[in-house]
Queue: 2 jobs
Job 1
Amino acid sequence: MKINYNQLSVLSPEDKRRVLCRREGHQNIEFGFEHPYKINSDFLKFNLIYECDREIEVSYWQMLPLINKSFPIEEADYIIYGHFYARFHNFQDEVKRQIEELAKLRKPEAKIIVVGKACNVMPHLDPNLEDILFFESHYAEKLGEYFNVPMKEEYFVFDNDKDWLNIWPVDGCLRKCGFCRRSYMHIPFESLPLEYIKDMLDWYKENNPWMLNHIMLRAENLTEYGIDIYSRQALPELIKLLDSYTEINAISIMIGLAICEINDEILDALCSSKKMYNVYTNIETGSNRLLELIGKGHTKERAIEVFRRLRESNPNILLHTNVMLGLPTETIADIVELADLVNQIEPNSLYVLKYRQDPLQPLAIYPYMSDEIWAYHLKSFLRFVRQGKRNIPLRIDTIKVPQLKNRKYNREMAIVQKEREYHYEDRDLWQKILLPRNK
């Protein structure tokens, strides 16, 4: 069955991934024009299934008219390649292998075009490779210019499943936290001008005012918004702009508020807005020693102040945070401090991450914590947090944990011995991980 582009545009990010990756029968898509180029995008489509929402919505989805039809590699004049490895930790060797394999399979003089964050592999490729281009940023529009196909990146995308309007006001992050891929990868930093954002909001107000009801601000570091174009943090002005629209009733911030960069002006703006709904800002760990070691730039005292003021300013606000266990040099004393911090700020949800070491990170100079010790730290942390005033809904993201030699922990840790992410209601999670020892 053929589906036109307008019908496809209302799909959720997950459904758009399936379309881009040719999954679940999405094979024939109609467009108002056909291009004459023989393009292969098989590797790109295969890798997109794990790409982040921003890349899918802002850029790759807009490329669909160009990459909808794919010729065999040996027939293609152009091979478009992308990879999600910037979303996770270092896939550099795999990306290098794939591109060099494509170079062997292509016909003579066929060009390989590498797009997005996969361009970080450029210095590591075989220097003898020819006919290879790199479009690191604005690659949908650059490809459109290159092939003379009308494509324009979109930074305002309505999510029909969630009933909110996604806005990506800034891309990139200038910080270099010791555990983050940005400590060893180049990702261009760029903010959208306030004038452009206002023009887009005005368009929605005029044409689809109901889509403005709930705004979802999305960025990897929203607190740095505007630094590149205004030489200052312009987030307060962006919040004020959003507050000025009566059609906007709720503002959520999925990620991107770095506590160390929430200065008093930004904090005042967040607290003054009565439209703030869901706000995510990550404490990561709870001892000032570890916070300094990993380069987060804030103190636990500042984290407490930020959460306290946000909570006091708006009793209906929902605050969420991440913590990371297994950090280098982490001790049970650090776990106790972290649990105490969590119980003080009382987030509405908690995401527990396992620190994963990469040899290119600054923190790689430290020994990696064993799975057994990490499992013990996780179990201890959950027990300490459980002693707080209330249950905090949480989820755990973990890699496989081996069976522990100490039998009393086997049942308690069995729930995290899976190679995937789990979501549980708080009551079920506590019951399954913190089983009574006499049962």
Job 2
Amino acid sequence: MNYEELYSETATGVKASAIRELLKVTSRPEIISFAGGLPDPDLFPVKSVAQIMQEVLTHSPKEALQYGTTEGQASLKTELIKLLKETEDIDATSQQLLVVSASQQSLDMAARVFLNRGDAIVTASPTYLGALQAFAAAGADIFGAQSDDFGVTVEGVQKCLQILRDAGRRCKFIYLVPDFQNPSGTTIPQDRRVKILQLAEQYDTLVLEDSPYRQVRFEGEAPQTFYKLDGGRGRVITLFTFSKVFVPGFRLGYVLAPEQIIYKFVVLKQAMDLCTSPILQLATAAYLKGGYLNKHVEDVVKVYRQKRDAMLAMLQKYMPQGVTWTKPEGGLFLWVTLPSQIDATQMLQKALEQHVAYVAGVDFYPPRDARRNDMRLNFSYSSFEQIEEGIKRLAATIKQCL
């Protein structure tokens, strides 16, 4: 059969993730990979998880193994409300929260709830590849706003919004990863956040705030979230996940938004997967209630800070002149810019021949903005020895291309 004749527009237009495809290659043991956004598996709280799973199955077996509510298990939502108050000074209600299968599902849901084919949105340029995938699958017309060493600029966002208004079009939402952005590692300062919220009001649109890394801060003072700065005016939807601060294998996250929006998300989720795994929700609730998360985040921050410092030191030691990089205050990534004559996508095969991998930056740009001399490096997954050897190999590959 010619299956192409049967595929939908969505299936025909969706692109494979460059990162997920690259993982098939980088799983080989001889490859030092800075490509994936993988947490350090040596930090997984295996004993705590095993103990909590046993407790859940002992004390709540019927609830754990049965279907759950679409909105999320009540015990987890209670702990999430406490967590938001303690960490962000946000007063949330159960009706403003939806438990999801990690933030990638919430990105897909946001695209389905708000976007028709051809609708316009604004993102930072570059921005998270998984979000670009979800929005492109929904047929979004993506406008990239200029970024600098502190994330997306106010002027860049306003320029995109004004272009759309002049064309008689409306921006459905502004998508941002404000803290330690994937891929660049930059953090949007608080004064910029306030001004971007003012633009959202001026141009009558929403801010979709993606916050997977916020707790992984190494230094400096955290700006307030867009949701907190919005002050309950209903302009912000915030997406959280436990993948980077607990365990990614649970595939667990949550959406914080106005009740009317959460209701639309709930109805859509009913059609998608009925509910997020109850047993994993109950285990996470117990983990939070037992006070384990704060200690685990402290351990993660300590190790990732050391790994970031190691990668920065090796970049300084081995990289040739003309190569620059960001210096993130937290998160899992930094962003390397090569001399303009080097195409990072073309160079990847040479790097793989040297048994080192990265993600070429071109995949993180909206279609109008693609640049080809950037790369994203992950520092959380590799060992200290691998960081030094991998950067050494990568620098040698760049010098060959120069």
